Amino acid sequence: HAAEAQRTDLMTITRHVLNEQSKHPEAHGDFTILLNHIVLGCKFVCNAVQKAGLAKLLGLAGVTNVQGEAQKKLDVLANEVFVKALISSGRTCILASEENEEAIVVEPLKRGRYCVVFDPLDGSSNIDCSVSVGTIFGIFMAKDKENPTLDDVLQSGKNLLAAGYCLYGSSCMLVLSTGNGVNGFTLDPSIGEFILTHPDIKVPSKGKIYSTNEGNAKYWDEPTAKYVESCKFPKDGSLPKSLRYIGSMVADVHRTLLYGGIFLYPADKKSPNGKLRVLYEVLPMSYVMEQAGGQAFTGNQRALELLPTKIHDRSPIFLGSYDDIEEIKALYAATEATK
Ligand code: P6P
């Protein structure tokens, strides 16, 4: 009967968030409404991504579609959908998107108290070869929703109220933390609902995988080079780690979250601040990883302590299993000590 009860007692993401909400009596359902609009965006993008190949086949993408309109690139389309969904939720007052140079201030009549930072379609360069891509988002509270300013989005990761991502892969999975651990929800396309499939995700304390673009090895600093060397030629007699690198952050981080190990996008001589963006890649993924019992480190500090000065700031990032991050922190500390 338990299995039957489980099967019919659908824990959708909305119901799950409402349960969470009930722990905060002062909350007025605003967060649930905001989240439902993010979920709407994810459902739309999931469908569009899965059809992208077909559209290309039919010659729609990149030329003109059946309405004769120029077919938008998927990342532009995804961005428009999320911006409109977030504004129409009536629960946001300022947005920062990877696709927009400047922050988007919501019109006064539709302002709410939340600020959302997001990458609508991270890794979109991988779509044409059907590699998984994803949406990444983080949620802050505005200081004064009637007078939103850039400072409302340029907040430290320590102020994040919630963060998550949606992976458009072999299944469409939304991973979310609202500050009480991490939960994974899989889209059931037959009913259009995200169902709780991975409750209370915990990243293994140590992993057997390292994930980085070895093609940058020539440009790495000494601690990163030493760490990757130790993954390949362990000095303690342990087995070498496996290298897994998809080149799509949401996919690489999601595998790290579930299987353990470490994801590295370090600074290098070409990119002294690394490649990944603080606000809508590094901070949300660091928040999720810490909430799952892992760590996130920049080479200098705990990643969530980063305070961006500009919307598109970059930072090096090392995130994943607690013990694996401890090892790279020790190497950076040792280098610091010799300076
Ligand atoms: P590289 C995709 O373009 C992206 O922004 C992330 O999704 C991914 O982790 C990274 O860049 C890959 O960068 O330099 O290894 O191709």
Bound molecules: 6-O-phosphono-alpha-D-fructofuranose
> What fraction of the residues are assigned to beta strands by DSSP?
15-25%
Report, as a whole number of angstroms, the end-to-end distance.
65 Å
Low-confidence spans: pLDDT under 50, at least 5 residues?
none
The ordered string of helix (H) and strand (E) elements is: HHHHEEEEEEEEEHEHEHEEH
* Class from secondary-structure proportions: alpha+beta
Major β-sheet strand ordering: 2-1-3-4-5-6-7-8
Counting DSSP E segments of at least 2 residues, the number of strands comes to: 13
Averaging pLDDT over every residue, what do you get? Answer: 92
Helicity level: 25-40%
- Enumerate how many helices there are, as a single number: 8
C-alpha geometry: globular
**Rg result:** 20 Å
Main sheet characteristics = 8 strands, mixed
Please tell me about this protein's structure:
By secondary structure, the chain is α+β, with helices and mostly antiparallel strands. Helix content is 33%, strand content 21%. The protein is built from eight helices and 13 strands. The strands form two sheets. The chain has an eight-stranded mixed sheet with strand order 2-1-3-4-5-6-7-8, with helices on both faces. Strands 10-9-11-13-12 form a five-stranded mixed sheet, with helices on both faces. Strand 6 (172-177) and strand 7 (183-188) form a beta hairpin. Helix 2 packs antiparallel against helix 3. The protein is globular. The mean pLDDT is 92. It binds 6-O-phosphono-alpha-D-fructofuranose. 6-O-phosphono-alpha-D-fructofuranose binds at residues 122-123, 125, 213, 247-249, 252, 275.
